[in-house]
Design a protein that fits this description.
The structure holds two protein chains of two kinds. Chain A is an alpha/beta fold. Helices cover about 35% and strands about 30% of the residues of chain A. Classes of the chains: A alpha/beta, B alpha+beta. At the A-B interface, helix 2 and helix 3 of A face helix 1 and helix 12 of B.
Amino acid sequence: MNVIKTNNLFKIYQQGDVEVRALNDVSIDFKKGEFTAIVGPSGSGKTTFLNAIGGLDTPTSGNVIINNTDITKLKSNQLIDFRLRNIGFVFQAYNLIPVLTAKENVEFIMLMQGDSVSKRSARAIELLESVGLEDKLSRRPGQLSGGQQQRVAVARALASKPQFVLADEPTANLDSASTANLLDMMYKLNQEEKMTFIFSTHDQRVIDRAKRIITLEDGKILSDVKE
Amino acid sequence: MKTLIKISWRNVWRNKLRSLTVITSIVLGLWAGFFTMALTIGLNEQRMDGAVKSYLSHVQIHHPKFLENYNIKDVIYKPDAISSSLEKNKLVRASSMRTIVVGMGSTAHGSLGVQVIGIDPEHEKEITSISQSILEGAYFTKIKSKPVVIGKALAEKLKLDIKKKLYITFVDEYGNQQKIKLKVEGIFKTASSLFDEANIFMKREDLANAIGHSGLVHEISILCHSIEHANELRDELVTEFPEVKVETWSEISPELGYANEMMSTFIYIFMGIILLALSFGIINTMLMAVLERKRELGMLMSVGMNKSKVFFMILFETVFISCIATPIGIALSYWIITYFGEHGIDLSIVGKGMEAFGVGSQVYTYLPNNLYFNISIMTLIVAFISSLLPARRALKLDPAEAVRAL
């Protein structure tokens, strides 16, 4: 079953007199439970593509259909709500809320969704245990290592049980051990909960673990290889 | 909302130095504003209080034409009836009948125009503070024959001293010139050197003897239990005694009332200017906070924090800063204003000017409690308005771009 479908997606920027086609007629489907890496050189359009399917950026033309909803037609606040209920984000620079503890950061999305205190707390503890941070619940991001912060970010992305998780170069700032731990954890969630993961990455370690590899260049899909 | 408040509160303390700087600037701004207001109001109150206590009192009764030219013939009709009515009136604390003539005070050293006020010393004591303002001599207790109490400024000008003679010349009700020889019993000093120079007090019976007509009353001066009762008493007396002119202190000396009204407006304009300056400090700080946290705000919007929550987060941060600073500013101001309200500020370096203005050289700060409340509300409103621009800036962030910001 397709959870994400893009049709003739274009994103065109104007840089001075030059027209830049960050996405150039991209049409692709993603199925539930896929573990996909989007690869390509810098400037190939990986992040723009993730932003487009995550509803963070509006394409110049074309549409993005997620669970039969064309998100390009949603208004700003509808889009924010859609993201909140359907998409988990993991950012390259972790982007945790520095004034909240690890547990509060994980609870944050559920709080926005209006879940009860007990439900939030139980889920946050469960997720932080699953990423091996059960002893760091009360630590603030500044008191955690990069790898630990990224694991909290993944736990936050998963907290609301989203349909799929978009991760923009999640291992870019991590050492080998942290990368391996993070990939193990995400792979486990993918297998156990059938959660769809889409990464943009340069990292060979991520590419090696992916079940589907989409290569972008100059905003176009060069190849789409499934295991 | 609880978490939003928690995030906002913790955000306030993320950059302690910056938040404390803004808080300090608000505290000092409020203190400067409150203190200047208290000094100005204190000065005005003292001037008003001085005028009321030294002579005006709260309400005065005259013949309708008396104050136009101080004609000795314009006397109050049936003053005893009015006096006995005043004794029964619950708004009235005390009253005093006065006989007034305008004349020339002379000594061997010179002459000056003066207002001669004939009083019943015991009644007058309850109305005005002249008896407590005696610097030298006594207040109608020592000299038996035609004693007079004069102001220090007049004594200096005419080189008068205790027991020295002062000659008063005036025109009586028949147009004849009269001359009285008075002996200085006391020298007083009020907050107004102009008053001290132009007014002398003698016994009403002595003045009646000189005029050759007892029972002439030109003025009845009334002190209410509170200055707020003045208008009410005036209205009652106007109804009861339509043949006389009844006026409150602010009608007799409108400049005092105008100064009061002007002060009320001035206070808010002045505080508005201070708060406007403070608002720019708040806007600047909050804009910096928003721009520094661009990536974080982008993330919050990316993961599903809607615009109203982002707006309220910035709003709460601004309001928290003001909510911390305002009570501290008020407490500091209250403490300092109360201290100088009790001990006064010595401005004797400009004492002459202050006395000419009608206040003493010691100024006591005073600020009504309702102003603390009003200004606090104004500060919170300014903080709210100041948060709008930074909050708007935050709302305009593009989450996709902001989340990648350095």
